[in-house]
Design goal:
Layout lengths: L2 E6 L8 E4 L3 H22 L9 E4 L5 E8 L4 E12 L47 E2 L2 E2 L2
Antiparallel strand pairs: 1-2, 1-5, 3-4, 4-5, 6-7
């Protein structure tokens, strides 16, 4: 699986992007090129415009990422704008949304059951009466 949808933290005004991670270095550059124009004004407003000279870093499992800024000479570093990575090439009928809602959170205009192909066996909370057994207000009578 090489294509991932990247969603950035809600405090950061960066729209999601889908990126091919076959080459991780190229993918990190693509994410940075996409996000830095959105990050720059926010960082300037926070009084830290130098943080816009940053790079995108992911964990080894490609489940999360963040932007990192390093000042080796000054022995300083910062991490900001967390991101969630979701594989998008799992199944063409599933958009990658982890929530099984009626309306997709990740793909505007996509309606439907995200778990349409999943069979889940739920235990019935209430015992069903046998055919012909009278049912009372408190449950099944003997």
């Amino acid at each position: 699986m090489t294509t991932y949808r990247i969603e950035f933290g809600p405090a950061w005004p960066v729209p999601p992007i889908t990126v091919d991670f076959t080459d991780r270095s190229a993918a990190a550059r693509q994410v940075a090129e996409h996000a830095i124009p959105y990050l720059r004004p926010v960082l300037a407003e926070k009084g830290r415009p130098e943080l816009a000279d940053c790079f995108f870093h992911t964990d080894r499992a490609l489940t999360g990422g963040q932007f990192m800024w390093l000042d080796l000479a000054g022995e300083k570093a910062a991490r900001f704008c967390p991101a969630r990575l979701t594989p998008t090439d799992l199944d063409p009928d599933i958009c990658g949304d982890q929530n099984d809602d009626e309306v997709c959170d990740l793909d505007p205009g996509h309606d439907g059951d995200h778990c349409a192909n999943v069979a889940v066996g739920w235990a019935n909370r209430f015992a069903r009466p046998a055919a012909g057994t009278p049912v009372t207000k408190s449950g099944v009578s003997a």
